[in-house]
């Protein structure tokens, strides 16, 4: 039987199959951050265990790290404790640790690919739902719980039920101003946040193949927001060029051998998926969310849907969401005042995202009513921004670049949106309170965020593009 890309990688990592039960799956790479790992390490200590393959485990803080004054002690006691605890655990168990101010530090899902730690054909886990990001490299990558983190620390294996497979094809070419973020928000608006539950998704089609590596990472990052177990894209020349020369990438003969294997990592022509979905690139415009889950999105020129065709339960949920956001059904968001703009997160904190943002703000000025947080996903991204002179473009427009971290994606550090304020955010979730108690989040691409940052209101970025 012809195999899918997922089948090939999963099957190559099966240690044993429990009869009428889960698969014991070997894990190539475990990433640990400070939030979901403390109890796992404590469990290891209480049982007197050592890590089975410490060389395959990488630790770095990102959720709690402040995006300013990282050379000073963290002021928040809880955040400081979590960051310090990760450092101690990494030291005690002999694990690689990229701490604050380490040039290799950043958001774990940005650092893995850019340092050549994430490679095609791997199985990758982390105690974080957006581990699906790494699937863009042609890997099987998914988030796990804290007890499972302990399982991998102890055995480099995990017990998992095999998910079903889905292929989502985006045919045609993306139009002006449409990014990978828009593709993901469009899919979620059609499939809802539960439309891919139980599936591992492979993205395919002309629009996907034409995405840069950064765009692919964004697309796979948001797979979890459709309920998917993970998302992945078959590695190709774009992938190989991105990896080549990175510090942890194979070199010399090892590169040639790895490349030969990576080129086999694609779904066979007659492979059968459990579900096939097709979308057309020409139907997608720049997107923005209006509600309190990532599936409540629409084209930026469109109006918020009405409840005419909804059942009573759906109407109640819909109105609750709109009441929280302060919006009404049937209204447009264009021209709505914005208070905060956030560029960053594991979704859109890469160099391409800063290039896109800078392309809009160049020659313009930040609107007076806007507070903008521009946060690189890593110190490597920060260095690229400065090497390319984007920092000067941004500074001339009235923006400043903060230090790397998860920042305003979630309210676990100092970067919180105040209650009642509106934020156009390039992050991945717009749940109630996600960016701060009472914060109102509109998810969008870096282009839409930049347009709001210079106009002070929700603006179609195509109006500002050359």
Q: Helical amount among residues, as a percent range? A: 25-40%
Helical/strand content category: alpha/beta
Report strand %: 15-25%
- CATH architectural label of the largest domain: 2-Layer Sandwich
**Treating each run of at least 4 consecutive H or I residues as one helix, how many helices?**
16
Q: How many separate domains make up the residues? A: 2
What is the CATH superfamily of the largest domain?
Aconitase, domain 3
Look up the CATH topology of the largest domain: Aconitase, domain 3
* Largest sheet: number of strands, sense, barrel closure: 5 strands, parallel
Please count the beta strands (DSSP E, at least 2 residues each).
Answer: 18
The level 1 CATH classification of the largest domain is Alpha Beta
Q: Which spans of ≥5 residues are poorly predicted at pLDDT below 50?
A: none
Q: What is the topology, as strand order, of the major beta sheet?
A: 5-4-3-6-7
Radius of gyration: 21 Å
The N- to C-terminal Cα distance equals 50 Å
Q: What's the pLDDT, averaged over the residues? A: 97
- Any idea what the shape is? globular
